[in-house]
Each structure stands twice: as structure tokens, then as C-alpha cells.
Specification:
Layout (H helix, E strand, L loop, with lengths): L7 H5 L1 H6 L6 H27 L24 H30 L5 H26 L4 H24 L8 E2 L3 H27 L16 H28 L4 H26 L4 H23 L2 E2 L19
Antiparallel strand pairs: 1-2
Helix pairs in contact: 3-4, 3-6, 3-10, 4-5, 5-6, 6-7, 6-10, 7-8, 7-10, 8-9, 9-10
Length: 329
């Protein structure tokens, strides 16, 4: 359907109705995608705050906050306010995702790939909201908590990919580096996923259960899981250094080398936080910083991998932005 075509379907389909009356600029579409990415990180950090303040069961049940009230009550105090506030942020995240979907659908030309990615974001958000409810109903089961974080990581994956796709075209992908370098990026992605999964086990067996009451923990020795996590981190660091060196050897594009450099810096900061928090008996503030760092590491790894190929913008009708990173996948 073209802009301004008043069909019955356009009336029945709200997205098509909006698209017939509004054409966002490419920059607006990019900002909408970035807003969804930022909120997907914010919701992880605020979820960590819920856990670290012992507010995981601040609301007694789900989807209501109590059996009789949808909203937090005065009797639930500070913990209830923290937990309920985090639930409300889910609506802000949903609004950001909705904006990304509407902007992608209303763009001219309509890029179906962006719209599909937006809907994937929506369904991941809904799935994680349900899993969050299950986590409350099961009394903060550590395996449910771990799944909750992994689904949040999946959302960050999709929002990062969507943001990148708004900055490129829909032409066939073309490699920017030799095949072995791309294979190295797959190894880096896989080991980072292992690192993130190991981190959920460290959290699940560690001291921060998410509530002041006695909460079941994963039956693993915390020191052992922390050391496994550290070894995984060193493997990721080694692969990141190898990627940075190889990209210089093959004379990769400047933006790709810059992303590899950024990854090293984020890993350095994250590793420092990790070792300090282990040595200082896992203080809450450093755990929160480490959760933020986990999100930033994963985004940095994704951006390195996505920069190793390109999609020509002119094939999708996307105006050139004058930014050497805009054509990177």
C-alpha cells in the first residue's frame, strides 16, 4: 500500500493507517531503534537493582502486586515500590519497541526486514514478562531467574541487530574481511555466550538471592563457578585480542578495527570490576556495574561481528548518511 491510499485494510490495520499519514526520516527510524536498545539495557540494570535490594518478592504475586491490588500498597514499603517500579519500566520498554515497529513500518520505502525485527523484539519482551511472573510465583527460583536474564540478553541481541540494520541497506551481504576472520568472530560470539551463561550460574549460586528470606540457590560451589566464569572471561579476552590483531594484519576497514578496540576496552573494564567484586565479597554496587558491563560486552561483540560484512544502502533506497559505519552490518 502506498502513502495516502485510503483502503479498507488501511483503516482496519492501525500500522498501515499510520504509515499512510506519516513518513519518518531515516534518522528518526535509527533513533527509534536505538531507544529500544537503550531500554533493553536499562531494564536489565533495574532488574539487577530489584535483586540487589532484596526486592524480588516486593510484590506478593503476579500479574497483580497483591491478591487484592494491581498497584503496590503502602504496607509493602520500599521493596514493593522497587519491584513495582521495575514492572512499570516494562511498559516503557514496550513503548520503545512499539515506536521502533511503527517507525519501521512507516518508513518510505517500507523495509519489511526492520518491521519483522521489531515484532521479534515485541514477542521477546512479552515472553520475558511472563517468565518474570513465573519467577515471582515460584519464589525466585534460581533457574527461572537465570532464564529471565538470558531472555533479556536475547532482546539485547535483537535490538542491537535492528539498530544496525537501520544504518544499512537491504542488499545482499558482502564480506569486508577474509573468511577465516569471520570464523574467528563466530568463535568470539560462542565463547561470549558461554561466559554470559556461566555468569548466570555464578549469580544463581551466589549470595544475592534477591529477597531477604531464605531463597533456594543453585547447588554449585560458588568459588568454583566463579573461577569457571573467570576462565571463560580470559578465553573471550584472548579471542578479542586475536581479533584486534588479525584485523590490523588484513587491513580491515577503520570502523571495524575501531569496534575491536572498543571491545577490548569494555572487556578490560568488565574484568577489573569482576575481580574487585570477587575480592571484596561481592558488594551490591559492583554487582550492578558488572551486570551493566555484561550487556555492554555482548553489544560490543555483536558490533564487531556485524562490522565484518556490509549491505549496500543504495539497494534499499536508504540515503547515504556520510558515516563510514552506516554501511557496516
Amino acid at each position: 500500500m502506498h502513502k495516502g491510499s485510503p483502503t479498507i485494510w488501511g483503516v482496519l490495520n492501525p500500522l498501515a493507517h499510520i504509515a499512510s499519514r506519516w513518513t519518518p526520516s531515516p534518522r528518526t527510524v535509527q533513533r527509534a531503534a536505538l531507544a529500544a536498545l537503550v531500554m533493553s539495557v536499562v531494564i536489565v540494570v533495574t532488574g539487577g537493582a530489584v535483586r540487589l535490594t532484596g526486592s524480588g518478592l516486593g510484590c506478593d504475586t503476579w500479574p497483580k502486586c497483591t491478591d487484592d491490588s494491581l498497584l503496590v500498597t503502602q504496607e509493602q514499603g520500599f521493596h514493593g515500590a522497587i519491584e513495582f517500579g521495575n514492572r512499570m519500566l516494562t511498559y516503557v520498554l514496550s513503548a520503545a519497541v512499539g515506536w521502533a515497529i511503527i517507525a519501521a513500518r512507516s518508513a518510505e520505502p517500507w523495509r519489511h526486514s526492520l518491521t519483522k525485527l521489531g515484532w521479534v523484539q515485541f514477542f521477546v519482551v512479552m515472553a520475558n514478562a511472563v517468565l518474570g511472573g513465573i519467577t515471582v510465583l515460584t519464589g525466585l527460583n534460581p533457574y527461572s531467574v537465570a532464564g529471565h536474564f538470558l531472555l533479556a540478553t536475547a532482546l539485547i541481541t535483537v535490538t542491537t541487530l535492528t539498530w544496525q540494520r537501520t544504518r544499512e541497506g537491504d542488499g545482499a551481504p558482502r564480506p569486508r574481511v577474509p573468511g577465516p576472520v569471520r570464523k574467528l568472530s563466530w568463535a568470539l560470539l560462542a565463547t561470549t555466550l558461554v561466559l554470559i551463561a556461566a555468569g548466570t550460574v555464578v549469580t544463581g549460586s551466589g549470595p544475592h538471592a534477591g529477597d531477604s528470606s531464605e531463597i533456594k540457590r543453585m547447588p554449585f560451589d560458588w568459588d568454583t563457578t566463579a573461577h569457571v566464569h573467570a576462565v571463560s572471561a580470559w578465553v573471550v579476552c584472548a579471542l578479542a585480542v586475536a581479533m584486534w590483531l588479525v584485523l590490523r594484519i588484513v587491513d580491515a576497514p577503520a570502523d571495524t578495527r575501531a569496534r575491536a578496540r572498543d571491545l577490548l576496552l569494555v572487556l578490560l573494564a568488565q574484568g577489573a570490576i569482576g575481580y574487585v567484586q570477587y575480592a571484596t565479597q561481592v558488594p551490591e554496587a559492583l554487582v550492578a556495574a558488572h551486570m551493566l558491563g555484561s550487556c555492554l560486552v555482548w553489544i560490543a561483540v555483536l558490533r564487531v561481528a556485524l562490522s565484518l560484512r556490509e549491505r549496500p544502502a543504495e539497494q534499499a533506497g536508504v540515503p547515504a548518511q556520510g558515516d563510514p559505519q552506516l554501511s557496516a552490518v
